[in-house]
């Protein structure tokens, strides 16, 4: 579980002030501090992740080990990462620790904002949110989750969203390479009435991962 911060989300998804005017869904949210930090700013936000079924106590215990494991992976593969956005490993750790603390506190205080659910099935009504943000799930794990799963997941996020779905990044975790089936998948989605575009964002940590996919339904 990664505890990404609101600041990271703002950069990863090129979020402007007006993007947060409606209801925002973080899917899959993991231990992100996005919902907690957004709520403190008056933004209506919720998150979905199957891990929320375990409850705040179990997740809080697990998070310290997950942060250490993530840092060790980065150290062992230093050539795959760039530090321009963070500035230093210490700054990244500081953001993650603060986000983790905000997540656990918010999950305990407002559990209704955290929905235990996993793609490609979300227990939300059609068109019930204005913006869906999906970080480091689709494409990141393309070696385990195939093209059909991706099509179903994007279709489902588009079903619950009356605005735009934003997905970041578009490269695989293991080697940072582009996903081989991305082009064919986008053609298929466009054939189903979804408008798809690739946009560069003001964020890069995993080398080469600086683009997001936007998906909107033709009205």
Pick out its properties.
219 residues, alpha/beta, Rossmann fold, seven-stranded mixed beta sheet, 6 helices, 37% helix
Short structural description:
The protein is built from six helices and seven strands, in the order αβαβααββαβαββ.
How would you sum up this structure, described in words?
With 219 residues, the chain is α/β, with parallel strands linked by helices. It has one domain (6-217): 3-Layer(aba) Sandwich (Rossmann fold), CATH 3.40.50. Helices cover 37% and strands 19% of the residues. It has helices at residues 6-12, 34-40, 56-76, 89-109, 147-160, 182-191; strands at 23-27, 44-48, 114-115, 129-135, 161-168, 194-200, 211-217. A 7-stranded mixed beta sheet has the order 3-2-1-4-5-7-6, with helices on both faces. Strand 4 (129-135), helix 5 and strand 5 (161-168) form a beta-alpha-beta unit. Helix 5 (147-160) crosses helix 6 (182-191). It is globular and about 45 Å long.
Overall pLDDT confidence = 94
CATH fold assignment: Rossmann fold
Beta strands, count: 7
The CATH H-level superfamily is Vaccinia Virus protein VP39
Question: Based on the structure given, which CATH architecture is correct?
Answer: 3-Layer(aba) Sandwich
Q: How large is the share of residues in beta strands?
A: 15-25%
- N-C termini distance: 36 Å
- For the report, how would you describe the main beta sheet? 7 strands, mixed
SSE topology sketch:
Blueprint: H1 6-12, E1 23-27, H2 34-40, E2 44-48, H3 56-76, H4 89-109, E3 114-115, E4 129-135, H5 147-160, E5 161-168, H6 182-191, E6 194-200, E7 211-217
Parallel strand pairs: 1-2, 1-4, 2-3, 4-5
Antiparallel strand pairs: 5-7, 6-7
Helix pairs in contact: 2-4, 3-4, 5-6
